[in-house]
Design brief:
- With 438 residues, this protein is of the alpha/beta class.
- It has three domains: 2-193, 3-Layer(aba) Sandwich (Rossmann fold); 202-290, Orthogonal Bundle (N-(1-d-carboxylethyl)-l-norvaline Dehydrogenase, domain 2), CATH 1.10.1040.10; 293-424, NAD(P)-binding Rossmann-like Domain (Rossmann fold), CATH 3.40.50.720.
- The protein is built from 19 helices and 14 strands.
- It has helices at 10-21, 33-40, 51-57, 68-72, 95-107, 124-135, 156-161, 173-182, 195-226, 230-238, 259-272, 278-291, 293-298, 328-338, 351-357, 368-372, 385-388, 393-398, 413-418, and strands at 2-6, 25-29, 62-65, 77-80, 112-116, 142-146, 166-169, 190-193, 309-313, 342-346, 363-364, 377-380, 403-406, 422-424.
- α9 (195-226) crosses α11 and α9 (195-226) crosses α12 (278-291).
- The structure holds uridine-5'-diphosphate-glucuronic acid.
Length: 438
């Protein structure tokens, strides 16, 4: 099939490459000229494992253009994968989708299926179909299909090629037939439903995962108070297949481009329809508090961070990505800076992006050793394997005082104890040394 993809962000580019890998001919269109140049030179603008290899392998079946007319006019299928950022009130901003819909209406000269892959509020597919139909320049037939994605950053290619399901929300038999043709080589089960249900599946799935995380984070907080161990609790819960063992790692709250935005958007949608989603409201509230939990823990030791050297390990919202959106580092570092701390930050791939926000206020280190040398305190925000594998004894050797506040439970409490650290983590007991204070 001749497929065009609007938007070359995480979702658009990964989808395009995976569709090409499975035999479709794909044209990617993006308004950003620099990005298209980069893509045409074989370089991915985002860090994502396997992506560049697959771009190269499928280079004969995939091209990148700026001109939307060229991309849309003859396509069998046009996939919209542009962003739906959060507005100030929590609702989803559909400006970019609307723009693409207008461009499609102006340019298509043959019947085609328009697929909305971006996460959109329930009812958006109906509105987009109306918008395109009302603005069509030529006499052609279109079907609009909701086809949400379930890829996570860092494992996006695998999540797409080996997805657990392909959700297709259609209102016509033709649309279903065309979508099954696009995905015919994927060998993944389909959920075929109406458009509104497909739109809801995406939000309900993401918000359920966010709910699971806020739940386990609250249980972790209670574990700390009553002296239980969250890791054993998660293990004991996760072995029940009705609960499942995924997304039970307690930490400093969820971040990224999806959960924070999608929880707020669904909550907003419910409110707009005079219904309060109490579970999602609580999910959001718990997460906001969890994000500043490490600072609260650190304040037990220091009233102020003024004049202290603070090591930060991990800037991205999770390992395997250079994405900083809603990362705990972005919530916590401003608080530390405002207090007058001197920050030494390390991250294996996130520094370049972080420099765009803090070019001068933060010192960047090229190794963990460099970041922690002479530090008064060290915060761990991302569970990179380099941090987990770091020789734990080095904290005592290199830091002024070996005070580690770990938001990702990277080390065993026993090991931290043996290495002489003052070690605080999430939902577990603190090291004996903590009682002595510093
Ligand atoms: C998420 C979903 O997992 C994907 O299925 C979905 O397609 C995607 O959003 C989207 O809507 O586009 P993503 O945001 O890339 O993917 O990352 P996740 O791996 O889900 O992690 C989200 C956050 O939860 C991270 O901050 C991570 O640190 C946190 N998390 C995850 C935990 O704190 N504990 C866990 O056990 C798992």
């Amino acid at each position: 099939m001749k497929v065009s993809v609007a938007g070359t962000g995480y979702v658009g580019l990964v989808t395009a490459v995976c569709l090409a890998e499975n035999g479709n001919t794909v044209t990617c269109v993006d308004i950003n000229e620099e990005k298209v140049k980069l893509l045409n030179s074989g370089v991915s603008p985002i860090y994502e494992p396997q992506l560049e290899e697959l771009m190269w392998k499928n280079r004969d079946r995939i091209r990148y253009v700026n001109d939307y007319q060229e991309a849309y006019s003859h396509a069998d299928v046009i996939i919209i994968a542009v962003g739906t950022p959060e507005r100030k009130d929590g609702s989803a901003n559909l400006q970019y989708i609307n723009e693409v819909a207008q461009q499609i209406a102006k340019t298509i000269i043959r019947d085609c299926v328009v697929v909305i892959k971006s996460t959109v509020p329930v009812g958006t597919n109906d509105k987009i179909e109306k918008l395109i139909k009302e603005n069509l320049k030529y006499e052609v037939e279109i079907d609009v299909v909701s086809n949400p994605e379930f890829l996570a950053q860092g494992s996006a290619i695998r999540d797409t090629l080996e997805a657990t399901r392909i959700v297709i929300g259609v209102e016509s038999e033709n649309a279903e037939k065309v979508m099954k043709e696009v995905y015919k080589n994927f060998n993944i089960p389909y959920v075929v439903t109406d458009r509104k249900s497909a739109e809801m599946i995406k939000y309900a799935a993401n918000d359920f995962l966010a709910l699971k995380l806020s739940y386990i984070n609250e249980i972790a907080n209670l574990c700390e108070i009553v002296g239980a161990n969250i890791e054993d609790v998660s293990k004991g819960m996760g072995m029940d297949s009705r609960i499942g063992d995924k997304f039970l790692n307690a930490g400093i709250g969820y971040g990224g481009s999806c959960f924070p935005k999608d929880t707020k958007a669904l909550h907003w949608l419910a409110n707009y329809n005079d219904y309060e989603l109490k579970t999602i409201k609580a999910t959001i509230e718990v997460n906001e508090n969890q994000k500043i939990k490490l600072i609260k823990k650190a304040r037990k030791y220091f009233d102020s961070f003024n004049g202290l050297t603070v090591a930060i390990l991990g800037l991205t919202f999770k390992p395997g990505t250079d994405d900083l959106r809603e990362a705990p580092s972005l919530t916590n570092i401003p608080i530390l800076l405002e207090d007058g701390a001197k920050i030494n930050a390390w991250d294996p791939v996130g520094i370049e992006n972080f420099k765009k926000v803090y070019p001068n206020e933060v010192s960047y280190s090229s190794s963990i050793e460099e970041a922690i040398t002479n530090a008064d305190i060290c915060f761990i925000f991302t569970e990179w394997s380099e941090i987990k594998d770091f020789e734990i004894e080095k904290y005592s050797k290199l830091m002024k005082k070996p005070l580690i506040i770990d938001g990702r439970n990277c080390y065993r409490v026993k090991d931290a104890e043996n290495a002489g650290l003052i070690y605080e983590s999430i939902g577990r007991k603190t090291t004996e040394k903590e009682l002595l204070k510093i």
